[in-house]
Every structure is written in structure tokens, then in C-alpha cells.
Amino acid sequence: MTRPRERRSAVARQGWVLGAALAVALGGACYSRPLEPSDSPPVSRPPRPRAEPTPDPLPTEIGPPRPVAGEGPLVRIALRVADGTEALGATGTWRLLDARGGVLVRAAAHEAWMLERDGARLRAVGRDGTATPWLGGPLSLAVDDPRTFVRVAGKPYRGALDLVPTDSGILAVNVLAMEDYLRGVVPLEIGARAERERAAVEAQAVAARSYTVTRVLLARAGNGRSGHFDLVASVADQVYGGRDAELPVADEAVRTTANLVLLHEGRVVTAPFSSTCGGETAAAEEVWRSDGEPHLQRVSDRIPGSDRYYCDIAPRFAWTRVLSGTELDAAVQRYLAAYQSVPSGGPGRVRDLAVDGRTPSGRVANLEIRTDKGTFRVRGNDARSVLRAPGGELLNSAYFSVTTESSAGRLTRAVIRGNGYGHGVGMCQWGAIGRARAGQDVRTILRTYYRGTTVGPIPAGLLTP
Prior knowledge:
The chain folds into three domains: 11-24 and 61-181, no CATH class; 183-271 and 427-457, no CATH class; 318-419, no CATH class. Helix content is 19%, strand content 26%. The protein has helices at residues 18-23, 178-183, 186-190, 198-220, 248-256, 284-287, 325-335, 380-386, 429-437, 442-449; strands spanning 74-82, 85-88, 94-97, 103-107, 113-118, 121-126, 135-136, 139-143, 150-152, 155-157, 160-165, 170-177, 231-232, 260-264, 267-268, 273-274, 318-324, 350-355, 366-371, 374-379, 400-407, 410-419, 427-428, 454-457. The strands form seven sheets. Strands 4-3-8-11-12-1-13 form a seven-stranded mixed sheet. A four-stranded antiparallel sheet has the order 2-5-6-7, with no helix packed on it. A hairpin with a 2-residue loop joins strand 21 (400-407) and strand 22.
């Protein structure tokens, strides 16, 4: 899931160069050709010279800012880290800029350039061997036309790119308007939805925008993951796919809810969400090590007057995972140490699994993993990371029960049956879809899952520098 950043005039102070990238002049003056009178006398004076257009030179001066990255607050999204080199390109003309806004490369869409790293330095190299000087990063790639897109690993993205040298490679950070960012988030988080499910998509847009704002504010306060970006483009924050992810229904939902966030007592609040609650959402303190949030409380997803749930249409409303003794041993050996102290030789072979208490929403409070070297206790949500499938997939949720089978004193199989998919805090996305199908509007859906909140505009001045 998911923080926005506003365009700044003093970009250099922020350690990233997007503002300067957007401010580079297109280069060259605009010359006019003088009109020659048709009744000029025979040449009695030297003809007036015509001012010919100059070749398209690299601009050397900074001009007024241009909104190439989009309007409104900007957000920085970490896309990927390339090992040693990164291909540079866009769908139209583009420029590579240094940290002061100076132009290093100006290229057309078809031109091939590679960015290379040498420690904390970067340089660009063209196909013909032309190379820029080695410079400390970050560098920025900006397009000349807001209708064109920068490219990362062949995929198009709106806005511009910051390219940052790191210990492990070159970090590509997409810098773009928050509303454009949400266009690449909402469809991947809520899925491709039909028009009759629009209220759920609008709820997703508001929740995602609220999460984004809170992450940006954390980053500005120095409490983010990095000084170079606000969010990552994965489930660690919100899944983001750039231009290729955009869909008409989601675009319209972002547009109709523009600037709207969730507020609690006038403060923008984080708005977590998960795929499927399994029948009842969880309070924040049931899942995370926190004192909880007043707006993140348990919510029943039961349809009034029935034995059904709004989210029982979800593909993982109910599920079963079976792990053999060998698979269970391997998972515990690999993942348990991240959540519990284990002996130097490892946790040993699993003999039994037992649920130790349940939270108010019915999720596992703690799981006991009993081995031939002792008993290890992990929190229910952490158990999802320990009881992984052989391919590394997390357990779907902490809303589960477990039975074990043994032979000759050894556990041979664990059968885990559960409901829901994800952490279960905040909005249930499939529940929101079910509620939209039942005719609930966006504000009703949001009030249901985020207790005591209102929907309103981002407070004035909150995202200004």
C-alpha cells in the first residue's frame, strides 16, 4: 500500500533535481524572417541578411519551470535497482540533467544511451561511444512534452526519473504528480472493475491517496525509508504499474475524487487495505505492534439479515494449505529466526503446531511451533511469514486453524484452513466491491471500514514545501 510531494522551486535543497529538469529551456531563440518589400529598387544597399534557424543546440540556461511532470503535489516512487547499467529512453525527445539542471544529453526517442555506475558516480554512454563526464548522482531524465513518457525496463511512466547510484546498483525513481501516480495504482490494487462497481474503485482511490499523503509526510519529516524516494512500487506500499496499468474506470475514479482523503479530527490518516477480510476486519493492534488507531477497528462484513458476507465473492474467501513434514521443516528452518530466537544449530524438526489464543476478530493471536529443540511462539501475523509455501508465498491470512498428522513420532503433514487474504486491517477490497454491487456509495463504504472518518480535501498548505 501506500506519500505525495509538491513541486518545489528550490529543488537542489531536496537532493533531487526534478524541478530543474522541468525548468530547462528548449534551447535556441525563435527567429523571424524579415519580409522584403515587393517593390524594392535595384540593389542600392546590401540586402538585409536573413536570420536562419540555428541547429538544435543543447540549451545551457535554465528558464521558467514547465509542468512536464504534471500538475499538483509530486511523489517519488522507487521502481527498481539495476545491477550495473540502466537503459535511458522515452517515447519522445528527452534530456539527461545533472544535479544543477545542466543538460548532459539531449536525445530523440529512438536514440540508445546507457547509464553506467562507478561507485557513487554515474555517466551516460551513447551507442557510438560518446560519453558524458563521470558525475555524482542523482541525475534526472526529463521529457520535453508531457504527452510522452519516460521508460524503465521497457515500461512507460509519466513524469520524470531520478537515477541514483547506490551500493547495489542504479536506483530508478519515478517523480510524477500524485494524481498521475494514483492512475497507475488503483487498477492494480482493486482490479479491472465494471462500471457498476465504481463506488469501490472510488473508495480505493481515496484510501490510496490518503496512504500516499501520510507516507510523503513521513519522508519529509525524515522518517521514510530513504531520502531519495517516498514509496516503493510494490506491496510494501502500493502496487504501481505506470502508464501500462491505467484503465478508464480507475482513471475516472481518480478524477472524480481528486484531492480527497480520509480525515479523522481534521488529520489525514493512513488508510490500509487488504484483499479479503474473510468475514471480519481486524483492529490494527491485533495485527501490528502498535497501540492501534481509532479509525482502524473491527468491522463485520456480514450482509444484514443473511448468513453471507459482502466479501464471500472473493476467490480466497476460504482456502486450505497443506504442508508436508519436510516442507514445514524447511520453512521453519529458513524463516523462524527472523521472528524468534533459535538455537545456533537451527530450530530443529517440527513435531506439532498449535494455536495459542485468538484476537477479538478471530485471528490467531500466537502460534506455537513445537520442535525437538523446544517450543517457539510467534505472533499470528508473523506466522504467515513462517508457514510459507515451498515457493515462498506467505500464508494467506492469520485467520486460520491448523491440524497435524504424525507417524512414528514425526509430523508428516499440517493442514491449514483459513479465511481471507491479507492482513485484514482497514478496507476489505472485495467487501467494498460487494457493497458497491449492493448499491452503497463511496462515502458509505469508507465510513464503514474507517470508523469515525470523514472524506474531505487535503488540508491547505499540508504539502507545500
